Amino acid sequence: MELEFASLAPALEAVFFMESEGRTIDALGRILEAPKEAVEEALGVLREKYEAGDSGLELVERAGGWLIRPRKDVWDRIKNHYGKKNEGRLSRAALETLSIIAYSQPITRAEIEAIRGVAADNMLRLLVERNVIKEVGKKDAPGRPVQYGTTKEFLSFFKLNSIAELPRLDEAEAERFRLAN
């Protein structure tokens, strides 16, 4: 069911509140069951609202996705409290991608995407930047795709001495990490 335009901007704002990562216009359209043009109009409404100056938030496009974040001047005032609190946090999508890598390493981007069912480029970039995964080689397959594995920082982040200390998966969980052949 398509939302009326009058309720699309507030609904879009609620989506940004619920999501921890930026979303593309196409993804926002799917979430809101609205056409791309309506999402673009709603983004314009929100941009005007936040640029009015009486808000501590701003609408930005980062890494191909849209998100709402604190304005720079506001962030400078609150980052000592919230910056440290959130620097170690990973989103649900990042944790899902990381768990797939941890339990299936070495693994390629295409294999991760086959398990998750969604594109993994942004998550891989984030996890590499956070230094919890790294490129560990190339798969002996056409195109020689990069394979990913976890790092020492991954072990430290989860307070593990080795990858062998990961909790065992039950059969249903293990099945989810298997690639269809």
SSE blueprint and pairings:
Layout: H1 5-18, H2 25-32, H3 36-51, E1 57-62, E2 65-70, H4 72-87, H5 92-104, E3 107-108, H6 109-116, H7 121-129, E4 133-138, E5 146-150, H8 152-157, H9 171-176
Antiparallel strand pairs: 1-2, 3-5, 4-5
Helix pairs in contact: 1-3, 2-3, 5-7
Short description:
The chain is α+β, with helices and mostly antiparallel strands and 181 residues long. It is 53% helix and 14% strand. The strands form 2 sheets. Strands 3-5-4 form a 3-stranded antiparallel β-sheet. Strands 1-2 form a two-stranded antiparallel ribbon.
The stretches of 5 or more residues where confidence is low (pLDDT under 50) are none
State the oligomer.
single chain
User: What characteristic shape results from the CA principal axes?
Assistant: globular
One letter per element, helices H and strands E, the order comes to HHHEEHHEHHEEHH
Strand order of the largest sheet: 3-5-4
The CATH class of the largest domain turns out to be: Mainly Alpha
Query: At the third CATH level, what is the topology name of the largest domain?
Result: Arc Repressor Mutant, subunit A
Q: From the coordinates shown, what is the CATH architecture of the largest domain?
A: Orthogonal Bundle
- CATH H level, superfamily name of the largest domain: Winged helix-like DNA-binding domain superfamily/Winged helix DNA-binding domain
Q: Count of DSSP helices?
A: 9
* Distance between the amino and carboxyl termini: 37 Å
Radius of gyration, CA atoms, in whole angstroms: 19 Å
Percentage of residues assigned to helices: 40-55%
Class from helix and strand fractions = alpha+beta
Count of folded domains: 2
Number of strands: 5
Q: How much strand? A: 5-15%
Largest sheet: 3 strands, antiparallel
Overall mean pLDDT: 84
